[in-house]
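Please, structure for the following, as tokens.
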Amino acid sequence: MFNIQRYTADKAAEWNRFVAASKNGTFLFHRGYMDYHQDRFEDCSLLIYRKNKLFALLPGNRKGDVFVSHQGLTYGGFITDQRATAEHLCQLFDTVNAWLKADSFRKVVYKPVPGIYHTMPAEEDLYALFFRCHARLIERDASATIFMPNQIGFAESRLSGLRKACRERLTVRESDDFPAFWKILADNLRTKYDARPVHTLAEIQLLHSRFPSAIRLFMTYRDDTPLGGTVLYLTSQVVHTQYISASEQGKRLGALDLLFHHLIHLTDFHRPYFDFGTSAIGTTNELNAPLIFQKQGFGGRTVCYDWYEYDL
């Protein structure tokens, strides 16, 4: 019923067209985004055809004898369009699992696209994971998300910072000054967590140049001095904060409180969700209580980003 082909560079245009027309794909699955770190991962993405027409995509990479969908992305899993039904996905998993097993894979780590990114219901894969693959939930990360048509007001702690920022006459504007923001971000991560941003400055500038309308930087200023900012990833349904950071002065002056008041209440991105991303401590996946407290103070409530695993 299905014909499977490994992704090769000559199929990039076909791949990208399908992502754009899918019901659960985002620009993170565009090959211009996926391939920026192709040197780090052994790509094993699949194109699945039905009756000679492209029916689904499966972004993925090989990690030894484990297929991961996809190790370099926040989420992955099957990308489908409105034709896909629960029955189709059950059959699709059967076919793909047999193909992966024949290619010496032993296990699959599957990271479905969270529902807030879907343009229409697209959880057929979750149904098939349970009934066909007997998959185990191995990771669940908590993200703080605002449903824009039904917002919660800012907590008093955030309103206090907002009032302080207004008294100091801070301003918010969109910027292309990624080097200035990256210095604030890198200093914060090094000091607090002995960590570095997932993307290097060169990588985020490259991705911004490829997706200027989808990857945008907004910063808070005192006069012309940047105090903090956020890198937003805009998909069709979600405004997602990929990075958030403020300098020590920015923290004292409420720079982020003013920034998110501006983005949530004064900027109309025409998306139903504003997602602050997950709040985990390093690679432990334990809840970073201070971080999620701040995000919930802006009105965010929990959406789960899940990982599943099953044996072949």
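The chain is about 35% helix and 30% strand. The mean pLDDT is 96.
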